[in-house]
Write a structure and sequence with these properties.
Helices cover 40% and strands 21% of the residues. It is built from eight helices and twelve strands. It is of the alpha/beta class.
């Protein structure tokens, strides 16, 4: 398994790299964010150990650019910042795990093993379908860059449809995942909220991406060119 270590402190970089090699990993190491981005874009890795405070380009910027370029290699962020806000920022940028310095090497190795097992499935930080984009962290939707205001329920419905993009989603499935178990109304509430989404997303922008599958439910799919 091939691991990229991006850490600006030479001693820490050498220590982490040595322990990984001793554990049987093939390791490459860099000391700047610019070098980290170049390596991860040009070459395949099974995991990236990425320090947040890197010179040239910080770890969060590297991570965001990786995900923008659809590089889904699992990323473990290392940082001395331990506030909840800092951790949330890293995870929302596309990190798979977060480890605060100082840390035990055994824990680092355990987390890397877990990331390698998980692999690199496609998991964009921002969901999109044609000109429609939705950021699950900020709950903001936009079409052609223009923000579309959504209620909390509308945003949840749109997110679920985007995550199941291309598949037929039944009304029952939408009720189970977008409405809570306490909801005891009819499934027509799904149709009502789909109409809300169409009124806000499709009609003003002349789109047709939420398709009705008669007798079943809905499918979200980009318009064919």
């Amino acid at each position: 398994m091939r691991v990229l270590v991006a850490e600006d402190h030479p001693k820490m970089r050498a220590l982490v790299s040595t322990r990984l090699r001793d554990a049987g990993y093939a390791v490459e190491s860099v000391g700047t964010g610019t070098d980290a981005l170049h390596r991860v874009v040009e070459y395949p890795f099974d995991t990236v150990v990425l320090d947040v405070m890197l010179p040239g380009m910080d770890g969060i910027a590297v991570l965001r650019e990786m995900r923008r370029q659809e590089r889904w290699t699992p990323v473990l962020l290392l940082t001395a910042r331990d506030s909840i806000a800092d951790r949330v920022t890293g995870l929302d940028a596309g990190a798979d795990d977060y480890l605060v310095k100082p840390f035990a090497m055994d824990e680092l190795l355990g987390r890397i093993r877990a990331l390698v097992r998980r692999g690199a499935p496609i998991r964009p930080a921002v969901l999109s379908c044609g000109p429609l984009a939705f950021d699950p962290a900020s709950r903001l939707a936009s079409v052609h860059g223009t923000v579309v205001p959504l209620s909390a329920r509308e945003a949840s419905l749109l997110e679920y449809l985007l995550r199941r993009q291309g598949a037929v989603v039944t009304r029952t499935e939408l009720l189970d995942h977008v409405w809570d178990s306490a909801y005891d109304g009819g499934s027509n509430v799904v149709d009502v909220y789909v109409k809300y989404l169409r009124d806000k997303i499709e009609r003003p922008h002349e789109l047709a991406i939420i398709h009705t599958v008669r007798g079943v439910g809905y499918r979200l799919e980009a318009e064919s060119s």
